[in-house]
């Protein structure tokens, strides 16, 4: 991915100064009289015009044909993220983790990043390592954690796994951007439970996974299957209707043939009375799906 972890560019930065120089040149080239300049200054809508130009231009054109109109929404049973303290308590109980540091952290949460729907509690990498003390390899740890999550979902409700017996490092990996972003979030959040800002698919509905990634803003990253699966455990009401918007796990990749080519993504959806875990190509476009993503505070 071409995105970086750098802070947002402002008009004080090199690229921002370049943008302002274009505006400056256009204004000077117009050769406005005093009266004309006053009329331009008094005409409303300039801010909206610039904002629209930036919104239309900020994303890459790559894979731009891989999106379609979608009116799919979340099921009516889902009212948004539960109170964060309640989520922390649930995560601590589900996995046998220590909630102390997470509860302390949420006493002074930063402003919710633009694009996020709310705060979600998930196990930290530190906690995952504690849960599997005999596994040293991070990729193996990740797969072991997802298998644990799948078993807990299956124990709590009707569940079908299309990839049964295949949750291993030959088939599944977390993408680098997501791993880096979560590591950065963890720098200020020690302990077993990590608090992340996220949205569960509405923001990128109708886009292929790889198109959604191209549309991520600087502080945005795809949610991986471990995070989406954990949210499914703490928010079972998110998956209750076959006509709902389903979730692409854009922070992970899947190799169909276990041959080193990771060109699929896992997805979680509700169908025929049960939650299901499946896969679809990174290029697949479907109005019924949207990539879930997280956000770092800026």
Features:
298 residues, alpha+beta, 2 domains, four-stranded antiparallel β-sheet, 10 helices, 37% helix, disordered N terminus
Strand order of the largest sheet: 2-9-8-6-10
Query: Averaged pLDDT, please?
Result: 90
**Helix segment tally:** 10
Largest sheet: 5 strands, mixed
Verbal overview:
With 298 residues, the protein is of the alpha+beta class. It has two domains: 14-57, no CATH class; 84-295, no CATH class. It is 37% helix and 17% strand. The chain is built from ten helices and eleven strands. Strands 2-9-8-6-10 form a five-stranded mixed beta sheet, covered by helices on one side. The chain has a four-stranded antiparallel beta sheet with strand order 1-4-11-5. A hairpin with a 2-residue loop joins strand 8 and strand 9 (274-281). Residues 1-6 have low confidence and may be disordered.
Describe the structure concisely.
With 298 residues, the protein is α+β, with helices and mostly antiparallel strands. The protein has helices at residues 14-30, 34-42, 46-57, 84-95, 100-105, 125-131, 138-156, 176-186, 209-215, 225-234, and strands spanning 118-123, 159-161, 172-174, 193-199, 220-222, 246-248, 252-254, 264-271, 274-281, 289-291, 293-295. The strands form three sheets. The protein has a five-stranded mixed beta sheet, covered by helices on one side.
Chart the SSEs and their pairings.
Elements: H1 14-30, H2 34-42, H3 46-57, H4 84-95, H5 100-105, E1 118-123, H6 125-131, H7 138-156, E2 159-161, E3 172-174, H8 176-186, E4 193-199, H9 209-215, E5 220-222, H10 225-234, E6 246-248, E7 252-254, E8 264-271, E9 274-281, E10 289-291, E11 293-295
Helix pairs in contact: 7-10
């Amino acid at each position: 991915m071409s995105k970086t972890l750098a802070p947002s560019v402002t008009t004080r930065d090199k690229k921002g100064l370049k943008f302002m120089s274009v505006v400056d040149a256009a204004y000077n080239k117009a050769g406005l009289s005093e009266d004309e300049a006053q009329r331009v200054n008094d005409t409303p809508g300039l801010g909206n015009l610039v904002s629209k130009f930036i919104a239309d231009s900020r994303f890459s054109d790559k894979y731009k044909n891989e999106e379609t109109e979608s009116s799919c929404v979340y099921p009516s049973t889902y009212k948004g993220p539960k109170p964060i303290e309640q989520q922390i308590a649930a995560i601590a109980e589900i996995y046998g983790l220590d909630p102390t540091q997470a509860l302390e952290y949420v006493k002074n949460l930063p402003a919710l990043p633009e694009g996020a729907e709310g705060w979600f509690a998930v196990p930290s990498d530190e906690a995952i390592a504690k849960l599997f003390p005999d596994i040293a390899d991070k990729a193996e740890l990740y797969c072991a954690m997802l298998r644990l999550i799948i078993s807990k979902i299956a124990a709590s409700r009707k569940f079908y796994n299309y990839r049964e017996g295949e949750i291993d490092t030959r088939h599944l990996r977390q993408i680098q951007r997501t791993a880096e972003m979560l590591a950065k979030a963890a720098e200020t959040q020690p302990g077993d439970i990590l608090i992340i800002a996220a949205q569960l698919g509405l923001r990128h509905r109708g886009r292929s996974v790889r198109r959604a990634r191209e549309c991520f803003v600087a502080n945005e990253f795809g949610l991986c299957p471990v995070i989406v699966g954990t949210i499914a455990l703490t928010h079972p009401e998110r998956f209750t209707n076959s006509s709902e918007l389903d979730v692409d796990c854009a922070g992970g990749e899947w190799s169909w043939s276990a041959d080193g080519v990771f060109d699929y993504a896992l997805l979680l959806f509700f169908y025929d009375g049960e939650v299901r875990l499946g896969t679809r190509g990174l290029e697949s476009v479907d109005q019924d799906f949207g990539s879930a993503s997280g956000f770092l505070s800026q």
